[in-house]
Amino acid sequence: MQRRQIFRWLLLLGALHVMVACAGFFAPYDPVQQDRERPYLPPMKLHVVDERGHLHLRPFFYAARVREGSFDQFDEDTDKAFPLRFFVTGARYQLLGFLPCRVHLFGTEGTRLYLLGSDGFGRDQFSRILYGGQVSLLSGLLGAGFTLFMGAIIGAVAGLYGGWRDVVLMRLAELFLALPWLYLLFALRAFLPLAVSPLKAFLLVIVVLATVGWARPARLVRGVVLSAKERDFVRAARGFGASNGYLLRRHIVPETSGVLLTQAAILIPQFVLAEMTLSFLGLGIPEPAPSWGNLLASLQQYSVLVSYWWMCLPAVAIVPFFVGYQGLANALNLEVATEKIEGKRGVTS
Amino acid sequence: MRQERAISLRTWIGDALLLACATSLLPAVAISQQSNVNRQVLSVPGETGRAGGRAVVSLRAEPKTLNPLTAADAPSREVIGTMQADLIHINRATQLTEAALAKSWKVSPDGLQYTVMLRKGLRFSDGQPLDADDVVFTMRVYLDENVHATQRDLLIVGGKPITVRKMDAATIVFQLAKPYGAGERLFDGLDILPRHLLEKPYQEGKLAQAGTLATPANQWAGAGPYRLKEYTPGQKLVVERNPFYWKADTTGKNLPYLDELVFLFVPNADAQVLRFQSGETDMISRLGAENFSVLSRQQRGFTMTDAGPGLEYNFLFFNLNDLGEKTSPEMAQKSKWFHEVKFRQAVSAAVDREAIVRLIYQGRGAALWGPVTPGNRRWVNASIPHPARSIEQARALLKEAGFSWKTGTNGESSLVDSAGKTVEFSILTSSSNADRTKMAAIIQDDLKELGMHVQVVPLEFHSLIDRVTQTKEYDACVLGLASFDADPNSDLNVWLSTGGTHLWNPSQAHPATRWEAEIDALTEQQLAAPSFEQRKKLYDHVQQILAQYQPMIFLASPNILTGAKNTIGNFHPAVLEPYVLWNVEQLYLRNEPMNASR
């Protein structure tokens, strides 16, 4: 039962991640390309019935035209209908970061289609959300992976060897847990060079996230290791002369896998959120490259907040991801719990 | 000299009206308030208002001081502007000088001697008389090197300080070493200080401690329309009507109309908008275009006014400092590009100024090709060309300067210099100024078309200024300056190569380039030129040199956007600072019952 639950959540998350990973294909435009004639354009409406009441099988839309003498008021130009087309050739991109490609899932010819509106520079909000997800999710995944790796090693060492190593490592973990991490991030960022390229900034964010995040998983892993090393089969293995390395590899690390997976499902969205916080405050990925955080940063301005509702859409876009990870974490947690019960039953019978 | 005639006419009208008032309204006025007979009150034209009530405005930050000698920040100057007065004042609406504490003035034919006659019966806001001794004392303090007055630089004409002599209790003679082009505009902003309060601290060398925010209201005075009432740290500063003020309306009623003026400290622009929207403040200025359009869309009980192009000019400049031997080779390479005039001209040709005006100012601004904005009609050089954006021309200029293009593996074309190095640099902007950060983003996108890789680095304002003027560790920077006066002399510090605000290469011992030397020489001549036409011709030439050599790539100038409740009378925002409070003594509340409830 649990397995199927986990599988369902994984399927949802997988689909979402593929969409973001192949942002170039799903997004109709280059996320940094500006269209200075159409700043703050509201999401375009897809029509099936035209001005004269004719029904079209293929959805279409009208081009936006800025209202005379205004800045952000647009009218639909109903003279010409632009049908929605699939698999169109457009802006150059690299699929998954290496395959040069020009085909986009949908688009149009002759004008630009803004499915979720445009920002203050006339950049396509839909494309930016997809591309922004690449940065945010990847830093979440990498940050969580790195953190868990560090946490697992430190936790296992502390738990298995005990003694002064345990004391030092755990006091250090407590210190990191007690640190106000946001201020730590500010301080860290202030020490770094002024102009950093988007790639460096991205790596930096990950390193920063991982450095502050390892303490909690390390403590959890230590707990599991402490109990695992007292289990009968581990003692038995030790009795047969197994080395510490062998014990870790064969018996103890597999025991922690449930905890680690659950932690991963919890930590990934947390780290995505941390990246967003950093970028929102202007400390993460620099413009013009999009990330979910810096997409939301424009909402700091009162005028944007009250005038252009579609600028809040990046916040909506992250909801399915977070729900997916939350669901997965719950299912994994249950799975780990039932496994434990079943495992214990197996031992006693 | 149209300017001078206009002034004498104005003074004359004023006096005539005053005479009429004094005779016809004498009985009524004499009873209700202090007699105007032995006072030479200045009668100002404008709507006749109703006395009483209070108005509330917000300030971006707390003022640092109330002492005109040490005030350098905008909030302090704004508050002091309502509490102090000068001899001759520049009318913010007409941009011409007019009599203030001085009743009239005479200039000697050689332009070296100004004889200023004070009004009769002037008093400070604490009731003490103001006479020639106060003026002489004020000048002595301003000119004292140990005081470090912000106005001191302006009072050194031709390398020598102005000397001041008292003729009688109401007449003072100012002697200049050289003729001063801007003439009596010199006196604007020279607030006359109360000698009876400041002489003792001055002799004890404790002038800096006088007139601070901690000074009790009864120990501070000025000749402005308002005087200090109370200061609540972190919240507000309240000023009350100065009963001894020297201006009256056309019916002879003493100004100012409002009993009280409250300055609320509201630290951010959006919060100011919200306060204004909710009716907590009566007037708002220094609005961004986006907030202006938000407020314009929901005008309820208030009216938004676009006062037109102001004097603020925004620009991009490159680091043209001589970095010396110890700089990194990378920085030296960049410095070589930046020093190339054609490189700067190419950048200028590639920048889409129209897009800046449209996307950032929502059309409420003007594109710039020189430092003088269209708002400054008297001084703008109309012959400076306004070339449209041209990528082709920019490419041609770069090619001439030895740059070429190379296509990378991902199909992107990059600009490389003659040594084969890719052109990449960063642009600093102030992180607190969203407009300029957006400008930098537009420039970044524009220059991408030339194959330049640009990064935008938003930085906290003080560390940005520190980098530009002290450490000089930067590539390029987007900044804005706002002249405080339409006259070019208010920007001397920017254009003279010795100036501290000569941003691209500040405080030079000797002009680094031929054209900088030429600007210095032209400015020197302009300072001493006797007529406006001659000065204009010289300044036009300065503008031309700037447009040609592009030490600053001028971008755009925002309009002055303001708003006020419909109940505020005589609200006429100007394009000069202080945008809405320049005629604070004439502002009044229209509607009694509504305001009584507050």
How do you describe this structure in short?
The complex is a heterodimer of chains A (349) and B (598). Chain A is 60% helix and 13% strand. Chain A contains twelve helices and five strands.
Notes on the structure:
- The complex is a heterodimer of chains A (349) and B (598).
- Chain A is an alpha+beta fold.
- Chain A has 2 domains: 24-128, no CATH class; 130-348, MetI-like (MetI-like fold), CATH 1.10.3720.
- Chain A is built from 12 helices and 5 strands.
- In chain A, a hairpin with a 5-residue loop joins strand 1 (47-49) and strand 2.
- The model of chain A is unreliable at 345-349 (pLDDT under 50).
- With 598 residues, chain B is α+β, with helices and mostly antiparallel strands.
- Chain B is 31% helix and 22% strand.
- The longest helix of chain B has 23 residues, at 2-24.
- The two termini of chain B are 49 Å apart.
- Classes of the chains: A alpha+beta (349), B alpha+beta (598).
- Chains A and B meet through helix 11 of A and helix 6, helix 7, helix 10, helix 12 and strand 22 of B.
Write the layout of secondary structure elements.
The complex is a heterodimer of chains A (349) and B (598).
Chain A: H1 2-21, H2 23-26, E1 47-49, E2 55-66, E3 74-83, E4 85-95, E5 99-107, H3 125-161, H4 163-178, H5 181-191, H6 198-213, H7 215-228, H8 232-239, H9 244-280, H10 292-296, H11 302-307, H12 313-348
Antiparallel strand pairs in A: 1-2, 2-3, 4-5
Helix pairs in contact in A: 1-3, 1-12, 3-4, 3-6, 3-7, 3-9, 4-7, 7-9, 8-9, 9-12
Chain B: H1 2-24, H2 26-32, E1 42-43, E2 54-59, H3 74-81, E3 88-90, E4 97-99, E5 102-107, E6 113-118, H4 132-143, E7 156-157, E8 160-161, E9 163-168, E10 171-175, H5 195-203, E11 226-232, E12 236-241, E13 247-248, E14 260-265, H6 269-277, E15 283-284, H7 289-297, E16 302-309, E17 312-318, H8 329-339, H9 341-350, H10 353-360, E18 365-367, H11 391-400, E19 404-407, E20 413-416, E21 424-430, H12 434-448, E22 453-459, H13 461-471, E23 476-482, H14 492-495, H15 514-528, H16 532-549, E24 552-565, E25 568-569, E26 588-589, H17 592-596
Parallel strand pairs in B: 1-13, 2-14, 21-22, 21-23
Antiparallel strand pairs in B: 3-4, 5-6, 6-10, 7-8, 9-10, 11-12, 12-14, 15-24, 16-24, 17-23, 17-24, 18-24, 19-20, 25-26
Helix pairs in contact in B: 4-5, 9-11, 15-16
